Amino acid sequence: MIGWFLKLLGISDEVAGNFAHAELRWGHGELAAIGLALLLPAAWLITRRQRRNLPHVSPRARNALSVCRIGVLLLLVMVLGAPYLHTEETLDLKPLVALIVDDSASMSLPAGPFDPAEARALAKIVAPAASSQSTATPAAPDDAADVAWRKQLNAMSRGEMLTAFLRSWRASIFEPLADKFALKVYRVARHVRPTTLADLAADTEKSKPSAAETNETDLGGAIRHVIDDAPGRRIAGIVLATDGRSTTWPDPIAVARSLVDLSPDRSPAPVFAVPIGSERPLADVAVVEISLPAEVAKDDTVSATVTLASQGFDGRKVAVELHDGDGPALSTAETTLAAGRRQSVLLNYHATEAGNRLLRATVAPLAEETVAANNSATAHVRVGREPARLLYLEGTPRWDFRFLDHALRRDKAMNTTFVVESQLEADAVPAEMMPEVAGLSKVPARWAENHVVLLGDVSPRLLPPGEQRALVKAVEEDGLGLVVQCGTRHMPWDFVGSPLAAILPMTFDAASPVSSDPGADPAASPSDGAAPSGVTHGLPAPIFAPFRMLVTPAGATHPAFAITGNISQDRALWSGMPEFFWAAPGSRLKPAATRLADIQPAGGKEKLPILAEQVVGRGRVLVVGCDETFRWRRNVGDRIFYRFWGQALRHVARKPAADGQLSWLEVEPQTVEPGTPVSIDLYAVDEARQPIAADSASVAITAPGRKETVRLERIGEAGHFHGSWTPEELGVLNVAFDGGPSARLTATVEVASSHRELALVDVDRAALETLAEVSGGELIEPAGLAELPDRLAGETVHQARPYEDDLWDNWLTLLLLAGLYCADVGIRRVLGLI
Asked: Is the model's pTM score more than 0.70?
């Protein structure tokens, strides 16, 4: 009865249900004690005064008035004292044992081959489970059954073998663990999903993940998930049953190392790695990657770099072919396989048709090859109808300019005009004549003849205010793209407050010089790790603490950073690029800008933006606050360096649709993996050829049997909308916007599985051993998992969990106060005292 009444007052179930063991406590005990001590004399005074002032009133009425006032005082003392009920619940926290089972596509690879000794040991595990499932399996292993068991085990996939193991381990190992440990079970592929032992052992079609889900293996994320899923509970061990292939970021070894660093006295999550599959390598040839420019011009010929990995075929010659989709081979090259290392093969691609092309590099499967599914890889390339026109204005031939100069001249899909300010000075061109000699104009249409303009460390002498205003208008009204790479001398420091500064996505303070070295070569940038000489503006890094670029989540989805096709891997790749020694971070990001990359100076608490982009009218503006991107060429040449610059310039450049029609719809990238965000940009005008003035727009995304709507938000000026969408299922999807006769637009996105899961087919025992060692666990072979309970440490912790709830802060206290006051007033009115 009391518990019911407490719940009626709003007291929590934990306190009300355990009322018999609850204690009354005071939030302000000293105030309650003082109030109660003063309450008795106050009550005497109230009663005495009522008797003296109201002698003509009956004693019963006088006493009622006294009770009302004394009651109000008592309630006020209670409120000041803040009484509450306190109770405790004792929890028995068992140490956690987590079982993580790999459910990814690589588990479909063969488990074997096994030698007789391996097959005999594994058969002891599989036999009990197999005999309970089918009467057609061989009897318990003995000498006569060795051959049959070996054939059966070699015919299993890793996933099938793991399921058979789980059926045996469920009753013999994991269910008995529940007496001492709390057991949680998870599946892992692209995501981590809680499950049960019964579900794993059943292995029904309903319990299996979709093809899109098996596209990746996130072992690092699974370990983090277990930690986050067990707050306040000791983890006795994480049993990881897998082939060791983790294809996405974060790296599981790095996760384990970071956890150990947080708790150096003991491992918070020892990993007991159970390798599923044979130790013997599989004979295999894999096409790991095909790399080529993201955009080429029609009738241009470019080189596609195909990366191969092989084992078991050392010295064997194979033919590598390049196909456009499923068409015949466009190019063929023969190479000799070298086991144990990756090798590159160059194939030529001649672009004969404009549009989006899906190129495929293949190697014909060899007769002895175990896995043929990884003998091809694809890459998306856009073939333009004509080369993009780029105007590149630079101050001096600094290192980035020198390498970009060579790369742009080789890029047949980019028609580049170069203007170097220092060359004009060397030719004795007067400052007032520099813009005219360079071919720059105060007419926006002249600027708009280009698709994109790249500004280096130029000064206002080459780009005075009149030319700046024309450039800004071409960006806003004609969709001209603009990329600004900051420099140590002029850009953007000499343009603070200028027309150009108004369209940059970041603001820059008019910085005071950081050094003075007028005689230094402004292009000089030492390769030995020193700060650049001749620096007059910006932020130089100490020699002992160089900057590292930190790509933001938004930057990881930007086309400029697309390398592998996997966002988490791309972000880790770019954030691991060589360090640099000078940067031009923005002091403030503008409201419509997107932050793409940061730096964190030594000793600084806040990250500072160095790459940002924003839409300005119909155009885009990108700022790169670093002039040492040439360092990305270390050991790999132009592959990463120009991949960034080529993709950034093409992404910012005026869109082909903007050349022929006013409205356009762009989806990037056009070929993605499940779970990878897709960027959607829309520019739409109405029938009066005016930008649509709405705050948002919607596009429809359709595929056979499904349809959804994605909302795009307005960015920048009217008519331009942006949004992102993450596809989760495989297939070709249609993206459509219906804005009336003047703006009916469509685009397509192909969502395809990655080949990374099958690129390397062997069980990665080395990675599992390292993971177990770093985390404080160990590698346990499937046949030895029965010894796992003896390796798990940890005792049940008895933890008292307190529950508290206020007694005064409820409707009853308010009702009593109001009731006593109203009773006092009512009695006085009846007696005619007021």
From this structure: no
